Amino acid sequence: MVAINSRTAIFGGTFDPIHRGHLHLLSEVIQRNLFKKIIVIPSGKPQLKLSPPQADSKSRLAMVKLAITELPIQVQEKIEVNTFELENNQNSYAIDTVAHLKSVSTDAFTWILGSDAALNLPKWHRFSELSQLVDFLVILRPGSTFTPISGANLTSLEIDALQLSSTEIRNTIFTGKEVTSAVPDLVLQYIKRNGLYASA
Q1: Is 44 left (phi over 0), alpha (psi -120 to 50) or beta?
Q2: Which CATH number do you get for residue 102?
Q3: Rounded to whole angstroms, how far apart are CA atoms 34 and 39?
Q4: What is the tally of structural domains in the chain?
């Protein structure tokens, strides 16, 4: 990765729901001055997920926006929420998202993803083409490593990532247990107010 802080990062995900682990990642990357900004993109119809998002697009977008307001202002200023995949109403492929971003910007892009997701990178739609358009920054879980992928420019970063999972959070909410430590306050209020994930 060259001239890192002149690049723009892309951080995509279903954010179903967004949690403190996501916010920790955004804060840590921004505080390291690795990029001039991070574009957060809630996915529309992710193809490598075993099941579609439980919360609808409107709710997931609302939760992302609420969560970001809980970050320090100097972090918020470097975050942009993009709704391309939600509005596209098609299957969500990273290469289409990157092509769209490149059509409206001259920036160089780096895609941020977790080490678990990085294992599936070769399965991403038209990956060989995608790897020519973006670099990748792999966020390592504590104690994890990543294997270089031929033809792709991958860099890794250890940020003491929080061990949180949206799936586990949804399951915890479903059972009626508290998730206060895992979910931003405003997001939790939204979940309860709208009865998401079968919450009371």
Answers
A1: alpha
A2: 3.40.50.620
A3: 13
A4: 1
Per-residue pLDDT at 200 exceeds 70 = no
75: helix, strand or coil: helix
Query: Does 76 map to a domain?
Result: yes
How many angstroms separate the CA atoms of 100 and 155, rounded? 24
Does residue 186 sit within a domain?
no
Residue 115 C-alpha from the chain's centroid? 13
Amino acid found at 112? I
Tell me how far CA of residue 135 lies from CA of 70, 111, 112, 128, 138, in angstroms: 29, 6, 9, 12, 10
pLDDT tens digits, 109-155: 999 999 888 888 999 999 999 999 999 999 998 777 778 898 899 99
What are 44-61's pLDDT values in tens digits?
876 656 678 899 999 999
The rounded distance, in Å, linking the Cα atoms of 113 and 122 is 13
- Decide if 137 contacts 155 (C-beta within 8 A): yes
| Containing structural domain, residue 60 | 4-162
> Is 99 in a helix, a strand, or coil?
helix
Residue 196 lies in a domain: no
Does a structural domain hold residue 167?
no
Read off the tokens for 61.
Answer: 């977008």
